[in-house]
From TrEMBL:
Residue ranges with Low complexity bias: 157-180
InterPro entries in UniProt: DUF3027
Region described as Disordered: spans on this chain: 99-118, 125-205
Pfam families (alphabetical): DUF3027
Lineage top rank: taxon: Bacteria
Full protein name: DUF3027 domain-containing protein
Upper lineage: Bacteria, Bacillati, Actinomycetota, Actinomycetes, Bifidobacteriales
Regions of compositional bias (Acidic residues) in chain numbering: 185-194
Length: 359
């Protein structure tokens, strides 16, 4: 138990050494700040390896009546020059597309900024007693909305909500309708001057936009999602900076017969390669991408000459290697010489062939 009546700096150092577990890790006093209410914060330099710029903080409370110091807390705190580890990043933010295999599934967050609700048409519910029309006219009709139709509401006559219809028409770029003046006369304003007609969208225009942009899915890409995809594709291995583009001899995918353009905004920059001999077959490529399998690149002229490359292993020639001297070489030469003279050697006995019995 430390002596609470001792000098506060000495007491704070003793507490810092006790927290650090070694006296070598506690340096000199670098700061002393009054925190109010008789509380003082003492800071000591940290000399532990790997903790450059950190400080030991010991907070003491002084009881004026008893003239005693009480330890509130002690900790190791970083300064602005402290050496710190990198900020922790959640695993899903650290994950790269190349880290996933074909059997992995991470799903899509409901609040993913790349997604927004798609278009859903809502219809009035059919009642069994046939009173739906009367109830709708009185504003009391019940309506049903299919699952996923949270971005559009039904009107009493069973048509789609004009707000959603106008949004879809804005995508399609359609502008039709009539003008109305302040006194109810079309084409005139209150002072007799003509005003631009407000945009009124018909159901046919909405249906055309839904079909053209395939908006009938539950969710579709937001402008942010399309921009991120375009940037990723254009800067990837199927963009203009790919190595294969250099072998295309200036022929871009936009002029290739195997290029299948995309629809919508992405179709202004990208398409899909349909050439089975191309390394980009079945992949999204930019219009200024290219490869050596372009439809306008003529194949090399056929030639009857066969250019044989040097084989990796030459088995048509024999390499004569000088035999190295061995200790048993003299014995082998003697055996070869005796065999050539008609002498057979077996089990250590030399027998002349002329002495062998004949049949």
């Amino acid at each position: 138990m430390p002596d609470t009546t001792m000098d506060p700096i000495a007491l704070a150092r003793e507490i810092a050494i006790d927290t650090a577990e070694t006296a070598e890790s506690v340096g000199d006093l670098v700061a002393q700040a009054e925190a109010g209410d008789h509380v003082t914060d003492f800071r000591f330099a940290c000399l532990a390896k790997g903790y450059e710029g950190w400080q030991w903080s010991v907070t003491l409370y002084h009881d004026d009546e008893l003239d005693r110091w009480t330890v509130n807390e002690s900790s190791l705190l970083p300064t602005d020059e402290a050496l710190r580890p990198p900020a922790w990043i959640p695993w899903k933010d650290r994950l790269e597309p190349t880290d996933l295999s074909v059997t992995d599934s991470i799903g899509t967050d409901p609040d993913d900024p790349r997604m927004e609700p798609g278009f859903r048409r809502t219809v009035a519910a059919d009642t069994a007693d046939g009173d739906a029309a009367d109830g709708a006219a009185a504003g009391e009709g019940d309506h049903e909305t299919p699952a996923g139709a949270d971005n559009e509401t039904a009107t009493p006559d069973g048509t789609t909500d004009m707000a959603s219809s106008a949004d879809a028409a804005a995508v399609a770029g359609t502008d039709t309708g009539t003008e109305a003046s302040a006194d109810g006369e079309p084409g005139e304003s209150g002072d007799g001057e003509a005003e631009p007609a407000p945009a009124v969208t018909s159901e046919e225009d909405v249906d055309d936009a839904v079909r053209a942009f395939d908006l009938s899915r539950r969710h579709v890409l937001t402008p942010l999602g399309r921009a991120q995809a375009a940037k990723r594709w254009y800067e990837g291995p199927h963009g203009p900076k790919a190595l294969s583009t250099k072998t295309a001899a200036g022929n871009a995918c936009a002029d290739c017969g195997f290029f299948v353009p995309l629809t919508g905004e992405l179709g202004a920059m990208f398409g899909v390669c349909a050439n089975k001999w191309s390394p980009d077959d079945g992949r999204v490529v930019s219009m200024d991408h290219g490869c050596g399998e372009h439809s306008e690149i003529e194949p090399p002229e056929p030639t009857p000459l066969w250019v044989q490359s040097k084989p990796a292993y030459d088995d048509l020639h024999i390499d004569i290697v000088e035999q190295l001297s061995r200790e048993e070489l003299a014995q082998i030469e003697l055996i070869e010489r005796l065999t050539a003279d008609g002498i057979e050697i077996g089990r250590g006995v030399i027998v002349l062939r002329s002495q062998l019995p004949r049949d």
